[in-house]
From TrEMBL:
Protein name per UniProt: Ubiquinone biosynthesis O-methyltransferase
Annotated GO MF terms: 2-polyprenyl-6-hydroxyphenol methylase activity; 3-demethylubiquinol 3-O-methyltransferase activity
Reaction(s) this enzyme catalyzes, per UniProt: a 3-demethylubiquinol + S-adenosyl-L-methionine = a ubiquinol + S-adenosyl-L-homocysteine + H(+); a 3-(all-trans-polyprenyl)benzene-1,2-diol + S-adenosyl-L-methionine = a 2-methoxy-6-(all-trans-polyprenyl)phenol + S-adenosyl-L-homocysteine + H(+)
Annotated EC: 2.1.1.222, 2.1.1.64
Keywords linked to the UniProt accession: Methyltransferase, S-adenosyl-L-methionine, Transferase, Ubiquinone biosynthesis
Functional pathway: Cofactor biosynthesis; ubiquinone biosynthesis
Protein family membership: Belongs to the methyltransferase superfamily. UbiG/COQ3 family.
Keyword Manganese in record: no
Organism of this sequence: Aurantiacibacter gilvus
HAMAP family: UbiG (MF_00472)
Length: 245
């Protein structure tokens, strides 16, 4: 369920290769990224509420990010960037896999969306600061998590908002997100490495190390009746905000 990989300084080259190989069918809701297509609306619901609360905007507005800049790190082929653009943001997406960036640019062009996609190391692209920084299902794929979080923080503008999501390191996530999901083809084999999953307490420490305050995490759970949904249960996956204290 990864949105792919991030920078030369923090990424494992084999991770970039793994996700770059999936670029061709990233936008196929029944393809190798099918789980991301199911996950995306849940993450967007959390993000929309977080945006409204953070900036005190009109909850009925269809463009709550109008006039704001957004950076999605580990953007893959743009599954999150495109909704952010439709919410009114001026969006930049960064990914370590050149194949993903090419697929993202092609899809955005076809959709008539002006999104600035970049390939390479986040810290060397000279992108400046953004009102909103997102990185969904990415931190579990980077080599140096503290360095990665520090790079995210360096790109967050004063008064800005960060939103992150990642699998939790629990017995349930090992059983379902790796064992069952890979066995039944819900995610490609080799997508996840359980030892790299980050617990909420560990993420809080990483964010505090980058001088950011973490909000209350919300679980992303699964049930037969609801599918993937926001929940108080963080055993599988969770999403959280961060900002300058």
């Amino acid at each position: 369920m990864s949105n792919a990989t991030v920078t030369n300084a923090t990424i494992r080259p084999e991770e970039a290769a793994h996700f770059g190989a999936l670029a061709a069918d990233w936008w196929d809701p029944r393809g190798s990224s099918a789980m991301l297509h199911k996950l995306n609306p849940v993450r967007l619901a959390f993000l929309r509420e977080a945006v409204d609360l953070h900036w005190g905007g009109d909850v009925e507005s269809v463009k709550p990010l109008a006039g704001k800049t957004a950076l999605d790190v580990g953007c893959g082929a743009g599954l999150l960037c495109e909704p952010l653009a439709r919410l009114g943001a001026r969006v930049t997406g960064v990914d370590a896999a050149a194949e993903n960036v090419a697929a993202a640019r092609a899809h955005a062009a076809g959709a008539g969306l002006a999104i600035d996609y970049r390939h390479g190391e986040l810290g060397s692209l000279g992108l400046g600061k953004f009102d909103l920084v997102t990185s969904m299902e990415v931190i579990e794929h980077v080599e140096d998590k503290a360095a990665f979080v520090a790079q995210l923080a360096a790109h967050l503008a004063p008064g800005g908002l960060m939103v992150l999501s990642t699998p939790n390191r629990t017995l349930a996530s090992r059983t379902l997100l790796i064992g069952a999901a890979e066995a039944f083809g819900a995610v490609p084999k080799g997508t996840h490495h359980w030892d790299d999953f980050v617990t909420p307490d560990e993420l809080r420490e990483l964010l505090e190390g980058a001088e950011l305050a973490m909000g209350e995490p919300k679980g992303i759970a699964w049930s037969v009746g609801k599918g993937l949904h926001l929940s108080g249960d963080m055993a599988l996956n969770y999403v959280v905000t961060a900002r300058c204290p």
